[in-house]
């Protein structure tokens, strides 16, 4: 089982969510976050002076999928979230040791 965390542009949330639902991703947690990558925020002019906005609003989508689903999940996110412009985001994949569905006690792949 793998955790797939994707940081994406906020306006892409619906597209990515719909694309993931279509391939059978059954659950996820979504948070409003702020961050920067190499993009390092952007400069804004305010009353003639330039200010750097360090953190830009992003959406973090957090889902755990079976090992068989990882590649398809990642490629679906990439396809749906990409604009080709700076700040499109990043995907982090990591191992998950255990999942427990609280209501039934089911574990691991059965609890996804
Ligand atoms: N190394 C990192 N660790 C944790 N979060 C990161 C990391 N890099 C990027 N992020 C998160 O992903 C968001 C989007 O990253 P961003 O697309 O700006 O990365 P990038 O590497 O600069 O790529 P690009 O050149 O496409 O802008 C950031 O705002 C931040 O929230």
UniProtKB/TrEMBL annotation:
Family: Belongs to the P(II) protein family.
Subunit structure: Homotrimer.
List of residues that carry O-UMP-tyrosine: 51
Protein's UniProt name: P-II family nitrogen regulator
A Pfam cross-reference name: P-II
A GO term, aspect molecular function: enzyme regulator activity
InterPro entries xrefs: N-reg_PII, N-reg_PII-like_a/b, N-reg_PII/ATP_PRibTrfase_C, N-reg_PII_CS, N-reg_PII_urydylation_site
Keywords: Nucleotide-binding, Phosphoprotein, Transcription, Transcription regulation
Protein species of origin: Sulfurimonas marina
Gene Ontology terms: cellular component: cytosol
UniProt record, GO biological process: regulation of nitrogen utilization
